[in-house]
Amino acid sequence: MSEAQGLERLSLNVWTTKKWTLAEAVAGCVEQGVPGIGLWRDKVAEHGLEAAAKLVREAGLTVTSLCRGGFFTSPDAAADNRAAIDECVTLGTDVLVLVVGGLHRGSKDLPAARAAVLDGIAELAPYADSRGVKLAIEPLHPMFCADRAVVSTLGQALDIAEEVERRTGCRSVGACVDTYHIWWDPQVFEQIERAGAAGRIHAFQACDFLIPIPADALLGRGHVGDGVIDIASFARAVRAAGYAGFTEVEIFNQEIWDTPGEQTLRTVIDRHTQLLTEL
């Protein structure tokens, strides 16, 4: 597959075109010259793991990440996360994005939840190392702390990565830098520099933060340039920190999901070309 000029580092996360099947998303990337694709496990499962691996391989796409592992405060986390690592290997990606999980069910003990996350990642890291898979902790916006991620800042994610290395000797743990979730953090650029110096930026995801926030806060993401984030500054920061990988566009937005996939992907490409390719 030939890469259109300026798109060499662009990846479509399949959740951006949610109503497309995996086969449709792969075909769309090929047709429009997007060389990378970020996968979600549910889309892979719908298509079949081995068939999905064959599909993306034959299309010549780079699988930039698999989402998601994590939820370490759930009782079945250990087995599910090992399965996710194995899926990464089959799919040909070395990045598993971790959404770490919220409070334990029925609990208000935030320190205990964070301790469980650290313990869970420390338990998982040696297996990830053995399989050649990097664990990318994704800090989520604090409004998702209770139910999705008790890790809210890039600094917290890096603290975990460093502690896991201290405990286990494993260097597989790093972070997913997602503009939507961490743009508000006054220390974010300092922490991006810290992450880059340690080689811990494993993924870079971009989308915008829309206001007003919709009733379902999860769906408040927009195309690059439509919201309040200076996304170009994040792209410059991760590049300056040594990250040479893809910019993966991941958008949760019902209106965008209801838009034909071809049109959404065209907008993703146009915004990337206009705002990010010269950085």
Q: What is the CATH architecture assignment?
A: Alpha-Beta Barrel
The number of strands is 10
* Whole-number total of structural domains: 1
Percent in helix? 40-55%
Largest sheet: 8 strands, parallel, barrel
Task: Provide the CATH superfamily.
Answer: Divalent-metal-dependent TIM barrel enzymes
Task: Give the termini separation.
Answer: 24 Å
Shape: globular
What is the spatial order of strands in the main beta sheet? 1-2-3-4-5-6-7-10
Q: Supply the number of helical segments.
A: 11
Compute the CA-based radius of gyration: 18 Å
Q: Regions with pLDDT < 50 over 5+ consecutive residues?
A: none
Overview of this protein structure:
The chain is of the alpha/beta class. It has helices at 22-32, 41-47, 49-59, 77-91, 110-131, 154-168, 179-182, 188-197, 231-240, 254-258, 261-275, and strands at residues 10-13, 36-40, 62-70, 95-99, 134-137, 173-178, 201-206, 208-209, 221-222, 247-249. The strands form 2 sheets. An 8-stranded parallel β-barrel has the order 1-2-3-4-5-6-7-10, surrounded by 8 helices. The protein has a two-stranded antiparallel ribbon with strand order 8-9. Strand 1, helix 1 (22-32) and strand 2 (36-40) form a beta-alpha-beta unit. Helix 1 runs parallel beside helix 3 (49-59), helix 4 (77-91) runs parallel beside helix 5 (110-131) and helix 8 packs parallel to helix 9 (231-240). It is globular, with a radius of gyration of 18 Å. 50% of the residues are buried. The mean pLDDT is 96.
